[in-house]
Design a protein that fits this description.
Blueprint: E1 3-7, E2 12-19, E3 31-38, H1 40-50, E4 54-61, H2 63-75, E5 79-84, E6 90-97, E7 102-106, H3 115-126, E8 134-138, H4 149-160, E9 163-167, H5 170-176, E10 181-184, H6 188-195, H7 201-213, E11 217-223, E12 229-233, E13 236-241, H8 253-266, H9 271-286, H10 296-303, E14 307-310
Parallel strand pairs: 1-4, 1-8, 2-6, 4-5, 8-9, 9-10, 10-11
Antiparallel strand pairs: 2-3, 6-7, 11-12, 12-13, 13-14
Helix pairs in contact: 1-8, 4-5, 8-9, 9-10
Length: 317
């Protein structure tokens, strides 16, 4: 059974509540109040575990919220390697307004992580009891963690001879691409930020191919929200559309996408089949309320409705 290790430097407890209507200056009576473990890599670990892979989540945790986060991860049957930090683990809040059907997300920056604390996370990742087949680093870096942090993670993955998968943006993404990366999963805004321009579909594919041609990454899976996703490898480019569904919540859709794709590749599926599972998992996630993620049964059900078509894009850079 493949082992997938995830690294989340800015984990969170995701709080989900609902109100009839958001009104300023008024005490609003809330419903729900569910809590889930969150942060990019933690979410990826939850999804791959639900699909049947062994998952270990590495993350810093501090204070009472950090202790609760460890309990919530354990509830998901995901193994934790939680490194203590002085700061308090953040809580993010998602509010569903029933009268409009709108979802509001309030995301905190996270605690300041000291040098010895983030170094301890790298050391723990480099000395896991079981050699991982895949290392997935996902999410923002909290204050105090240097921009080249994911580049250091890439070196650890190379030492394990494990595939390194990254979901990051901005300067940390650019620094990581100086190392060896198997797969990156930017969204449209992140890819445009990386390229420094507003890109149409053809230009997006060319930008992805340029990264591959420069040996910075083996493949790019570009998520486009309700418009589906793109996969670009050295062998071609493909566009995928999931089944037409009415989204209940978009929280964790990108993480579910990545979890489905990583799981499928770890199971030996091709790039295209992994892409299909990723789109299916992302679609399954938007059907789940609040901060819940994709479940295996719904992922397999959505898989049959994913349509993938090759893109004929010439004159790539």
């Amino acid at each position: 059974m493949p082992t997938i290790a995830t690294l989340t430097m800015n984990p969170a407890i995701d709080v989900s509540i609902a109100v009839d209507r958001i009104v300023p200056g008024v005490k609003m009576r809330c419903q729900g109040g569910s809590r889930d473990p969150g942060g990019g890599g933690v979410n990826v670990a939850r999804v791959v575990k639900r699909l049947g892979a062994e998952a270990v989540a590495v993350y810093p945790a501090g204070g009472e919220a950090g202790a609760q986060l460890r309990r919530l991860v354990a509830r998901e049957a995901v193994e934790s390697v939680a490194l203590p930090i002085a700061g308090e683990t953040r809580e993010d809040v998602t509010v569903f307004e029933a009268s409009s059907g709108s979802q509001y997300r309030f995301v905190l920056p996270g605690p300041h992580v000291q040098d010895l604390e983030w170094m301890a996370c790298l050391k723990a990742l480099a000395h896991l009891p079981t050699r991982p087949d895949v290392i997935c680093a996902s999410g923002s870096l909290p204050p105090g963690v240097p921009n080249d942090f994911y580049r250091r993670v890439a070196a650890i993955a190379e030492g394990y001879e494990a595939r390194f998968v990254l979901d990051a943006s901005g300067a940390p993404l650019k620094a990581a691409l100086d190392g060896h990366v198997h797969l990156i999963k930017p969204n449209l805004a992140e890819m445009r930020e990386y390229a420094g321009a507003t890109l149409d579909e053809t230009a997006l594919v060319h930008a992805c191919r340029k990264l591959i041609a420069e040996n910075r990454v083996e493949a790019v899976a570009l998520t486009l929200g309700a418009d589906g996703a793109l996969l670009v490898t050295a062998d071609g480019a493909w566009r995928a559309h999931g089944a037409a569904v009415t989204a209940v919540s978009t929280v964790g859709a990108g993480d579910s996408f990545l979890g489905g794709m990583i799981w499928a590749q770890a199971e030996g599926h091709s790039w295209l089949e992994a892409f299909r599972y990723g789109v299916a998992a992302g679609t399954a996630a938007v059907l789940a309320a609040g901060t819940e993620l994709a479940h295996a049964a719904e992922i397999h059900r959505q898989w049959a409705g994913v349509e993938i078509a090759p893109l004929a894009v010439e004159n790539a850079a």
